[in-house]
Structures are given as C-alpha cells and as structure tokens.
Description:
Rossmann fold; six-stranded mixed β-sheet
Amino acid sequence: MIYLQNFIFPSEYSEENYLHDYYSVHVSNTYHTNMYPFKVLSGVGMFRLDFEPITILYGGNGSGKSTALNVISQKLHIERQSAYNSGELMDTYVDLCSFETDMRWTGEEFSTTGHRSGRYDISEISCMITSDDIFKALLQDRVSREQTLIKSRMLTDQAESIKMGRWTDFKFSRHLDLESGENIRQYKEAVEIRKKSVSQYLRDKLGNEEPGMSNGENSFVYMSGLLKKEGLYLLDEPENSLSPEMQLKLSDLLVYMARYNNSQIIMATHSPFLLSTPYAKIYNLDGAPACVSKFEKLEAMQMYYAFFASMKDKFEK
C-alpha cells in the first residue's frame, strides 16, 4: 500500500531567497548561526522522495536522514512522543515543502466548517517511532519493575514479621478499635498472611512474576505492539538495542506489514539487516547527489563485505 506517494523539499533557489530575506531583517540585531533544517538536505542534493511500500533512507551521521523524517512528520502533522531537533526555522522550512498522497490530499484545504475537505486525514493513519521513543519505553518498564521489586521486599518483610509472631510490627494492639476502625484493616491483613505462605501472599498481591526480558526483546515487543494497524509508519533507526536476530525479525515484520496489512514504511537506518529488507527502495544520502541505490552498492555494505572477506580464513577454520 502506498499512502504517501512523494515528498518535495525546498529547492536551493527557494532556500536562498528565504534566507536572504530572513537575514536582511534579523542579522543586524541577532547573531544567527543555526539555519537548521535549511541547507541540510539541499547539501546532499535531496529535493524529492518518491515512495514505495517500503522506502529506506541510508546515510552516515549528519547525512540528513533523520532530518528528512522530522520534516515529513511535521508536514503531515503526525503526533510524536519524544522531542526532536527542530530549530526556530523548522516551521518556515516545512511550509516550503509539499507532498502528494494516493488520494491527492495536500493537507491544506479545509471546508467552511473547518473540516478537511479531502477524503481522509493522513495524520490519523500515520505513526512516528524513533529510537528515543524506544529508550523511553524501556526506561518506563525498568522503573515499573524496580517499583514492583521494592513493593515485593516491603510485603515480604511484613509477612515474615507476622509469621514470626511480631504482631506489634503491624501497629495494632490485642484490642481492636471497632469504633474508629483504625486498625481493622491491619488486623485482617495479618490474618490473611497467617493463612498463606509468603510466596502465595506475594502472588495474590503482585500477581505472578513475569520472566524478565532483555532491552532488545523489550524493544521488539514495544515496536510490534505499535506496528499493528494499517497505515503509514515512519521509523527512525529502530535497530537500536536490537540484536542481529531481532533486526532480521523486524525486517520480516515490516515486509509482512507492507504486503498483508495495508501499511507503508519509511525508515532511516544504518543496519545491514534492515537495509537488506526485500523489495525495499533505498535512497543513498551519501551519494552526490542523493540517489536510489541497490543494497550491495552502498558504501557501508561494501565495507562490511571487505571486512569479512579479509577474515574469510577465520570463519572457514
């Protein structure tokens, strides 16, 4: 499925015109050095992207692949979870961009009632997933597990105190205050503990303990949960924290989503495993200018090939 057909970035002429007018007004009062995202994509000669069901942006650090995704996501009004490098000129740059969808919706036309006059709003079927989103989810999971562990230790100490007869640790005496009911709950808790083993008491309070997963496994589960509905997905370096095995599984998942779940994938990545995704269209931002390239022609893939070829004897022993 192709929801987003193409995306057009400002020409060098458009950039120069705007920056000339901008600096003629501002440069006398303020020293401006941050033109981001101006000059980033034009610097690598990327002015237009034509998309397939799976399109990959490849390039070294600073090549502009993440910038391209940021611009596309802002132009399409895609909601994001994590902050990103925008700069004070981002909104103006985005205004200079344009795109086409399969239903020719431009994102600008509105009816007199304030509703989109297009057949659908592409932002509602789009999702942006970045490595920062993944790390944030991993951190939240870790905090949740640590909180559960702390609570487990507190409940264990409490249960062991009751089992050993140290009822005073529960802050109630032999006589219950039936009028205020202040220590009734503690008494019921103590009685419950006396009837059960410590492990059974913890299971009832906290649920069964789930086996822990690695960061990579949690990352894959997190992304799999997001990649369920049909729609347009922008992925910024999703390989972070994933082992080679998990990266291959993610590649298989993306192919499945594109083929059988009416989804379109636009991804920025360094991963050789994701770059080798079958039927993917690859834009090489390290080219001069940026151009469509085959997987095996990419400079990084040539480096991998040469590296392992130089160690061929070690693998064959």
